Structures are given as structure tokens and as C-alpha cells.
Amino acid sequence: MTKCKICRAEFVKRSMTHKSCSPECAEIFGREQTKKQVAKKEREETKVRKEKLKGRRDYIREAKTAMHAYVRARDAGKQCISCDTWLPVESKLGGGLDAGHFRSVGSAKHLEFDERNVHGQCKHCNQYLAGNALEYRKGLIKRFNAEFVEGLENDNEPRKLTIDDLKEIKNKYREKLKSLSRANG
């Protein structure tokens, strides 16, 4: 015995596709299924229209969000690059750590998506001390070396990212975040 999808009365199924107890219930079930299919098609069309309306800034925002999520996950549990306080291991957005840039996006836009330039930083250093640049530099030298920092400081080659590049960056960091999550269990 199976329950009817519409009136919940019990009936004996005659086939795998038999979903209702009577022709009346079958008609109602068919209309509901059609409504669901139409709604799904409308959602898909809306998604396509929204994608077409996206501008360059939208793609930059999406790529930045994906990269920063990866950096926060990568550096969670490590020390702040600037002040050596231990960063919290939190998975929620807006937690206790930021993805701070050594060379600010305002002064070095071409390094915005360069992993060498972005590290886990406590909110205090990143937001209230404007990045705590001097200590950030010392932290980079301590974590890597002086040549690394000099290479980053001397990297002034402009990069013009296309929308396809931004999509690729977003997908790359989403994939890196997934593999990092799988590795951490």
C-alpha cells in the first residue's frame, strides 16, 4: 500500500509511475508537477539573465570573495602576519581574521589576486591599524625571506585582467578551498 501524493489515501500501485489513487488526484498532481517545472525553468532563465547583466566589478567581487575565503582557510590557526597573535580557526564569514594585503589594492591593484601579497591578518591589524604595514613587512621577512619581500615590493608590472581571467581566478580559489577543506577533514 502506498499513500496518494494528493489526498494521502492509501492505494495499491500498479506501476512505478503510479502516484495517485484516482484520475482526479492524478490531474491535480499533473498540474502541480507542471507548475514546479515552469518555476524551475523560470529560475534557470532568471539566472542566465542575471549572468548577462553582470559587469566587470561583479566578477572582481566574486573573485576577491573566493580568494579571501581561501586565504582565511589557509591561514586559520597560524599567527597573524603582522603581530604574531594566533588567528582563530573559524569557518564562518566575518570571523576573527581577515585576508590582508601587504601592498594595498589602492596602491598596487595588479597584486590584488597575487597569493604572495595576501596573508591571514587579525582584524585589529588589518582594519584598525590600516594593515600594520611595517610589522607586516617584518612578518613576511620572518616567514619567507628578504628577497621574497623585495621581489614583491619591486613587482610593478601592470596586469589587465579580463572577465574570463576573473572567472578563472574565482574557480581556481573555490577549487583550492575545496581541496583544502577535504585535506583538513
Radius of gyration: 26 Å
Query: Which runs of at least 5 residues are low in confidence (pLDDT < 50)?
Result: none
Indicate the percent of residues in helices.
40-55%
Report the β-strand fraction as a percent range. Answer: 5-15%
How many alpha or pi helices? Answer: 6
Mean pLDDT: 90
Number of strand elements: 4
Task: Outline the biggest β-sheet.
Answer: 2 strands, antiparallel
> Structural class per helix/strand content?
mainly alpha
Shape: elongated
> What is the spatial order of strands in the main beta sheet?
1-2
Order of helices and strands: EEHHEEHHHH
Distance between the termini: 43 Å
Give the tally of structural domains: 2
Description:
- With about 180 residues, this protein is mostly helical.
- It has two domains: about 1-55, no CATH class; about 55-185, no CATH class.
- It contains six helices and four strands; from the N terminus they run ββααββαααα.
- It has helices at about 25-55, 55-75, 125-130, 135-145, 145-155, 165-185, and strands at about 1-5, 10, 95-100, 120.
- Strands 1-2 form a two-stranded antiparallel ribbon. The protein has a two-stranded antiparallel sheet with strand order 3-4.
- Helix 2 (about 55-75) packs parallel to helix 6 and helix 4 crosses helix 5.
Short description:
The protein has two domains: 2-53, no CATH class; 56-184, no CATH class. Helix content is 53%, strand content 8%.
